[in-house]
Amino acid sequence: MLAEELLALTLKKGISTAEVYQVNSYARPFSFEANRLKQIESSRTSGIALRLWHNGCPGLVVAYGHFNPEDLIAKAIAVSQLNEPEEVFLNDRAKLLYLDDSTEPDVKLLITQGQNAIEQIISQYPDVIVNLDLEWETETTTLINSNGLYCQQTDNSYSASLGVELVREEDFLGIYDGVYSHQPVNLTPTIETIMKKLQWAKKNVPLQKGKMPVLFTPNAVVTLWETVCEALNGKKILDKSSPWSEYLGKAVIASCLNLRQLPDLKPYHCPFDDEGTITQSINLIENGNLTSFYTDKKTAQKLGITNTGNGFRPSLGNYPTPDLINLVVDKGNYSFEELVKKMENGIIIDQILGSGGDISGDFSFNIDLGYRVQQGEIVGRVKDTMTAGNVYQALQNVSLLGFERIWSGSCYTPSVVIEELSVISG
């Protein structure tokens, strides 16, 4: 059933205020395991969320695949009877359409691409096990409500996740990377990056515990940015759980850091949020100073500020809540090689086990993939090593930034050198 049909039927039942959010997707994933093609699949999914207000009380229900619309509406009304009345936050009449034609890829070409990638790696490293996931997906999101709002976006994407694993006696090495694009992916840069990291990890080197400079690659530094994103969340500002609740206009991190949201930047562009508000560019931190938070409609009203259009659903069954899209960190002045040379002695962190710090900023995590730097050169891999500190304090001590930025999820960030962190090695 289409979102429009469900909304029309809901209104016929005497419900005057309602919203329908629908996501339809079709994907073709290809999986290679242990250097060989394992499976080719196709999957089609459809999910729909109905949110209505009956006598001012909200009811939210979700259905997947085929469903009985009469039953879904009845369930939503029943749920509403369990809730207290609330203020309704629905956008007014507007039509936002962002459609894109989709063409299913040639299966044989994708299989050949995967096989060539694996052969390229094992020709130089015959002992490694290569795992590769390739996927093409088209997804259409529709949001409509009883005020006349109609938003729809179709997004077509290609993604690849490449991992190599090497077992040497009792030593396990795993290196992982990936790419996401709206065009067929070029695996060559990813392959070259992984082979370079394999070269750096050829030998394990000892490391003494202590405080030292730490270079976070884009893969690793995103863990720090995740904590920063939480601190910039308008909801956290509202309930005072963010340590930056009273710091608007004040310095919070190093002056060399500039963070912004750029929703139009591909491949993770997002024209509207899950409330139907047009997304916008936001300067979050400028020269280390906190300049803005991000909000959904409800949070913005409570804070008495303009809504930034960041109301997103964690899942179909959740209400919209503030979330960032396309966090972009301004680039610095140095290549990766220059960062390593200027660091002189320290470590590089590329992969982290577990999650980073919570909203307090305190963190302690194991380094899954890291390298030792001595006299400005990478001399080998470090094992059984962890680092600890506080995200906010660490980001006040950023000494160097790279100019090569990479997408890590929907965060576009350069490498970052923190002047000093505690490192413990077993």
In a nutshell, what does this entry contain?
The chain has 426 residues and is of the alpha+beta class. It has helices spanning 3-12, 69-80, 107-122, 188-200, 218-231, 234-238, 297-303, 336-343, 391-395, and strands at 17-33, 36-40, 43-54, 57-64, 94-98, 129-145, 149-168, 171-181, 210-216, 259-261, 282-286, 289-290, 311-312, 321-322, 327-329, 346-353, 362-374, 377-382, 385-390, 398-401, 406-408, 411-413, 416-425.
- Poorly predicted spans: none
Main beta sheet = 8 strands, mixed
Instruction: Assign a percent range to the helix content.
Output: 10-25%
Q: Say what oligomer this is.
A: single chain
Structural class: alpha+beta
**Average residue pLDDT:** 95
Rounded to an integer, what's the Rg over CA atoms? 24 Å
> What coarse outline follows from CA principal-axis ratios?
globular
Question: Ends: how far apart?
Answer: 58 Å
What features would you describe in this structure?
This protein has 426 residues and is of the alpha+beta class. Helix content is 21%, strand content 40%. It has helices at 3-12, 69-80, 107-122, 188-200, 218-231, 234-238, 297-303, 336-343, 391-395, and strands at 17-33, 36-40, 43-54, 57-64, 94-98, 129-145, 149-168, 171-181, 210-216, 259-261, 282-286, 289-290, 311-312, 321-322, 327-329, 346-353, 362-374, 377-382, 385-390, 398-401, 406-408, 411-413, 416-425. The strands form 4 sheets. Strands 1, 2, 3, 4, 5, 6, 7 and 8 form an 8-stranded mixed beta sheet that branches. Strands 12-11-10-15-22-21 form a 6-stranded mixed beta sheet, covered by helices on one side. The radius of gyration is 24 Å and the shape is globular. The termini are far apart.
